[in-house]
Amino acid sequence: MRGLEQVLKLKMTRMGKGRKKTPTKIKEMQGTLEKSRTIENEMVVDQVSQLPEVPDWLSEIGKKEFKKVTTQLFNLEMLYSVDLKLVEAYANEISLYLECEMKLRKENRIDEFQSSEGIVLRRQASPLVKMKNDALNNSLKLAAQFGLTPVARASIAAPVTTNNTQINNYFD
What we know:
It is a single chain. This protein has a two-stranded antiparallel sheet with strand order 1-2. It has helices at about 1-15, 25-30, 60-75, 85-105, 125-145, 150-155, 165-170, and strands spanning about 110-115, 120-125. By secondary structure, the chain is mainly alpha-helical. It is built from seven helices and two strands. The longest helix has 23 residues, at about 85-105.
């Protein structure tokens, strides 16, 4: 019997942690909140009371994306101060993706390496292709955290806001 206990213990240590925990607020919005599954002392963070300034270090594309996303999240009352750096990272990654794509359209996507006689030795994808793909993957991961992808949006119900709330937020 002791051997069985050791095998079970070994299997338990190899198994993953299971599903990721879903915040109570999201469970409420999805309509799946059950009292038995709530966390008693769940972390509560401060909601942003006014639109944040656009960071100077972002590119022009990144600044536009940051402003667009923060305005949308703010109007939905889903923008929190602890999330601002992640929104910056998202805006930076999406701008990097777009900047790489624009540069690739002007240059070749394939680099050719030739011998001194002009014979093509090898061809390989431009490093910008990998940078672009990595930036897109990173931006998609971050976007999903904020409900900015179609799949993420489908699983989260936005808080109810009135037309007056959105208009008032626009003029603040």
